[in-house]
Amino acid sequence: MNKPVNPNELTSDDDGPLYVAQKKVYPQSVSGTFRRIKWGLMAFCLGVYYFLPFVRWNRGLGAPSQAVLIDLPNSRFYFFFIELWPQEVYYFTGLLIVAAVALFLMNSVGGRIWCGYLCPQTVWTDLFYAVERFVEGDRRERMRKDKSGGTLTLRRVSEIALKHSIWLMIAWWTGGAWVLYFNDAPTLVKELLTFQAPMIAYIWIGILTATTYVLAGFMREQVCTYMCPWPRIQAALTDEWALNVTYRYDRGEKRTSVKKAAELRALGEQVGDCVDCYQCVAVCPTGIDIRNGPQLECIQCGLCIDACDNVMTRIGRPKRLIGYDNDINIQRRQEGRAPVYRIVRARTVAYSAIIAAVGGIMLYVLATRTLLDVNVLHDRNPLAVRLSDGSIRNAYTVRLLNKSGYDRVVAIDADGPINSTIHVVGTDSVTPDRPMIVIPRDSTSELRLLVTAPADGNPEKSVPVRFHVTDIGLGEVASATDNFVAP
Amino acid sequence: MTDHSEIDSVTGRATTGHEWDGIKELNTPLPRWWVITFYLTIVWAIGYWIVYPAWPLISGNTRGVMGYSSRADVAVELANLDKIRGDKMVVLGAASLADIEENPALLALARAKGKTVFGDNCAPCHGSGAAGAKGYPNLNDDDWLWGGTLDQIMQTIQFGARSGHAKTHEGQMLAFGKDGVLKPDEIVTVANYVRSLSGLPTRKGFDATKGEKIFADNCVACHGDGGKGNQELGAPNLTDKIWLYGSDEAVLIETISNGRAGVMPAWDGRLDPSTIKALAVYVHSLGGGK
Fold it and tell me: Which of A9, A82, A180, A231 has the fewest CB atoms within 10 Å, i.e. is most exposed?
């Protein structure tokens, strides 16, 4: 129970705001190894994303010539030499498992590599920051311009307008590239430019333009801190050996100014390398201080490493005061022992093994995938029909699948009840005894197949029937089993 | 109305003025936006009455100024559907029944269309899989009362059997018992004779010669010599293994005593010609077609 409160002391029951207000982050530009890696990866990721739809792949006449295409109207997925049908969607399950475990592996080797270098949120936010910096200037300038508040000079207004226009152009291009994966890219580009593309294309471009613009232009680090579940999961999956972007406090503390440090060192005293210059904070895209230890907000992009290295070089101290490290090594160094890095350990070996196993299974299944298939569905109503001469007939719906790029002629045989005959509705005039069917390339054919057996000599209520579909030209065989039942 | 509200000393807010066993309630009015929305919905509803069909009258209802009706919407949808199907159904209507069965694309179309139409119109009697029931023929087998060729099936669908249509199939099983043509013991004898035609066991002491004679005198006219049936009259073949009402002695006695005259309705005029065609092909392709 709450303690009774004197009515005169009652105030409004305001618990304060539910959220901490967003603190605008002004990351400073930085140069160095990790910045170069990030630029490279950004160019690679965006290059793949924006230009992959234009890569061509010859699949023969009549088939789409786009290397990567999700053809929803025809329910086909094309990836270079692979063509998948809707029933093979389990390959994506395999792909997702591999992706998830790869994420775990990255995490146990080098922390949030995904978050810091590869995640679309990071890549696009980084790009948007680059635009912001290009138009409005670096950290100090942007802070000054924002601080001066409402003074909207013509120059300031045009700057803001330019920034948002470039952002919107990038966002629009992002949405535009997305829809190109769902249709022939050159054709769709032509249609889009002449305003003849289907409405759904414009709608999707609109949606993705909006999400890109809002997520990379405004929400930025808030997405990582509040919306994304991975930081929480990552924290639960990590272990003491995983390398994370770490401030080596064993080397950095106690923080001292450059001048004082020089004096103290001259006196032979132990001084930390950190000179409290706040460069690591200035460059941080999530606005945190890495020196406070591992934090949920830290996406481990490595930019503070570059910032600190630059300072350390300038003041003539060894680099990597901030670097990929872990607590074990910090303690070892404090105890005067050499650091140990253990990339190969049970966890990473297990993850690698899972990736290899799932990837191997997927490759095997993909390599042994058949291009001719048959599905048989027994009529449910009626299960069996007695004919006037007393013989019994079962009807089946047979679906033949030709996943190849050429038309096939197939013959259908059935091993079923003794002395049974088979018949496919609609093939009477061609081949009465052994039905022959033409299946056009990359399509399915549905047939009505009848199996008739004399009642005498077939006393059982249910006998298995095996259907064989044989490609007359190539000899490929597909089979399916069902049952033949008596009334 | 007297205002009984007072100011609550603890919170400093007004009360509703009501009191329940000494308990008073603070006055917490609905938010302004909510009240405004509520009034707007009322205004909206009045507008709706004017624009759309709304109030029931003695014969009919108010029509609304826009002249909207959901039936008109359905008509538009159906017209659109016809437009989408357009060419395909025209081709189907123009092709002969035999051509349809030999052209895989047309066959697939006719079967798809036929299956839907069958489900909507025929399934109540013949069952969703056309397996039939007592008195309603199984359309999957190869035994046909009125013929199993494509043309014969289509004719039966169009005009029906004993349907009252001018071109309907006529002919029925007479009530030999009820009308006093045969005596009960004669009926039993001929029923056993009929069973013997298809190799079914007969009653002990059954007189085959007598049965044959009764059959020849009364039944041959429609069912033919040896009971092979006559599709002109819809008289079933009595020598095969398929029985529309059943082959038990008791059922046969009932059939012979009271007669049978099941009705198949005529669909001409109720379904359009290309639909009937699709239906005929569908039934024929179930497997029993001749």
Answer: A9
